Amino acid sequence: MSDTAEWITATAKEWGMRVQNSSSATVASGSDLDQDTALPGGLTPARLAWRAIGTAGEHLAAMHHMLITSDNGVRAKPYLTLARATMLGAAKAIFVLEPDMALDRRTRSLRLLRAEIEDLHRLVSDWEKSSRAVTDARDAVDDLRRECQQELRNADVKADSVVSETDLLVAVAPHLHGGTRDPLASIMDVWRLSSATAHARTWSWDSGLEDEEPLTQYLRIWSVPVGLLEESWVLWNKRRKP
Questions:
Q1: Minimum mean pLDDT among 20-34, 123-137, 145-159, 164-178: which range?
Q2: Which comes out higher in pLDDT, residue 169 or 68?
Q3: How far, in Å, are 7, 11, 71, 136 from residue 61 at the CA level?
Q4: Could you tell me if residue 175 is left (phi over 0), alpha (psi between -120 and 50 degrees) or otherwise beta?
Q5: pLDDT score for 132
Q6: Integer Cα distance of 220 and 188 in angstroms
Q7: Residue 221 · residue 60 · CB < 8 Å
Q8: Is the pLDDT reported for residue 71 higher than 70?
Q9: SS3 annotation, 196-221
Q10: ∠ CA 114-165-158 to the nearest 5 degrees?
Q11: What distance lies between CA 212 and its chain's CA centroid?
């Protein structure tokens, strides 16, 4: 196994322990994140970032569990689905944690929250169509949307400003290290293959990935998500400690 593959495997094991350690989510008094105030709905930028990192870490840990409990080689399609969530969670955390200024962290958090609110609206609509009593939920989501929109206006940002997943990955690409000639192209390679798998696109069967040797598959699928997640961990510790 190559040095990079060993690093991926060791990092995945480490994340299995990190996400179960409550101290990993602790924000120290006097730190950058300790200065950030609550967002609409009660989350802080710190809690939003940790939830993104924690979700990513759980998926990476699941990959490690799959690896050590299987003797059937690399499962490219399930790995891609896990890699997609790992990469997206890491990217969200980097996006929030990158700015030095609290106002910038808050504005970025609001833009991510604004996108999530639309997901909540669709969920409540589905509940309503299934004849659930959701009046309180509808009112709460409407209030959350209005408050988020107002805060974005107060920050001189469009009220419906959101960050698409592609824009998010473009924004964090400079944080991907490891010698790749084009970090964004490497990110988008994994993103497009993993999105195709997550959406059960038929063309994903003809992408050629599963014709590659298991080690080549492993490196291609996991180098980018693990690289971004480790960068999010560095930023998280930078912002949560004095």
A1: 123-137
A2: 169
A3: 14, 9, 17, 37
A4: alpha
A5: 67
A6: 12
A7: no
A8: no
A9: HHHCCCHHHHHCCHHHCCHHHHHHHH
A10: 35
A11: 27
